[in-house]
Amino acid sequence: MDKEVEVARFTDVSEAEVAKGLLSANGIPCILVYDDVGGMEPQMNLGEGIRLMVPPAFADDAKGLLQSVEDGPASDADGD
Hints:
The protein is built from three helices and three strands, in the order E-H-E-H-E-H.
């Protein structure tokens, strides 16, 4: 990938991996960018965090998909 853009930032590796899996499962190429010294210093992620990156052409779709998961399932008009 060239010149990826950030679509989300996390402090937890597990949460970042789930989001990456969601995007990948929906055909959106993505990578996680972080430095935790090979897993030996996970607290280093608290500074800059774990960045979820996608190619610019996929940024809007990726953000929309992540937002839809964050918002949760939509309910119908009757409130069911």
